[in-house]
C-alpha cells in the first residue's frame, strides 16, 4: 500500500491517532503539507466541510466524520466527487439516550431550579407545594426521530411507565413498536398531544426549523421540549417566545441553533437546562467515537471497506 496522507483537523484524544501505522502520514491544518497530497480528512462535527474545502483537496478519497450527525459536511457534493463519507453511528446511542433522560428528569422535576433555591438559602422546611413537577408515569413522551437514539430513549421511557408516541420518516417494525411500547402517530398528532417532546432526528433541509412558531402554537399548554439532536431543528427565537409566554413550561437543550452561541434570554430562564453539547460525553463513548473514525480511514485504505459509510 502506498503511503496515505491524512489531514486531521483537531488532535484526537485517547491515543487514538497511534492506531495509524507507518503507512499513514498525519498532518494538521497548520502543518506544511501540499493540498494535492491529502487522501483522507478527519473533521470534527463542528468543522464545516464545504464544497470549497473539498475542492481544495483534489486527491481526497474519504471524509471520516467524528460524530454521527454529518450536517457539517456537504455530503451530496462529496458523493458527486466519488468521495466516501463515514460517520460514527451506534457507538454513542446509549450515552446520548442517558443524557436525554437526564434532561427529561431534570426539567420535569425542576432539579436545577430546586438546587439553586436551596443554595440561595431559601429552603425553610418541607412544603407540600414546593417545586411541583410533572409525573413521568402520567405523561406522554413524543419522540421525533425513531432511529437508534430515539429507540434507546423509548426503552428508558418505558421503564418509567410513560406513554410513548413517535414520529419518523419510516415506521419502525411492528416488533420494535411492541418491544418499546411505542405508537406511531402523524407529526401533528405528536406535536399536539405530547407532554414532553424529544428530538432525535438528523439536521437536514427538511428538518431545519421543524419546530417553529406554527408547531409551538399547536402544542399542549405546559409542554416540555428536549433537544439532544441539532440546534437548528428548533427555531430558537420562537422557543424563547413560547417559554416566555408560558406555553412551553420548560426545556432541556444540549444543542443550539448557533452553537456555541446561546439565545441570550435562555440564560436567564429558570425553567431551562442548558448543556454544552455533551450528549455523548462519557469516557467510554468518546473513546469509541474517535476509534471508529480512525478505523474507518484505516479500513478504507487497507481493505477498501470503511466500517460505517453513510449510504
Ligand atoms: C454526534 O455525534 O452527532 C453527537 O452530536 C455527538 O454528541
Q: Features of this protein?
A:
single chain; 311 residues; alpha/beta; Rossmann fold; 2 domains; seven-stranded parallel beta sheet; five-stranded parallel beta sheet; 10 helices; 12 strands; 32% helix; 16% strand; binds (2R)-2,3-dihydroxypropanoic acid
Can you describe what's shown?
There is one protein chain. The chain is of the alpha/beta class and 311 residues long. It folds into two domains: 4-87 and 283-303, Rossmann fold; 93-274, NAD(P)-binding Rossmann-like Domain (Rossmann fold), CATH 3.40.50.720. The chain has helices at 51-55, 75-80, 93-108, 111-119, 148-159, 174-180, 187-193, 213-218, 236-244, 283-303; strands spanning 4-8, 24-27, 40-42, 62-64, 84-86, 140-144, 163-167, 182-184, 196-199, 223-227, 248-253, 272-274. The longest helix is centred in the C-terminal third of the chain and has 21 residues, at 283-303. It is elongated. The chain starts with a strand and ends in an 8-residue tail after the last helix. The structure holds (2R)-2,3-dihydroxypropanoic acid.
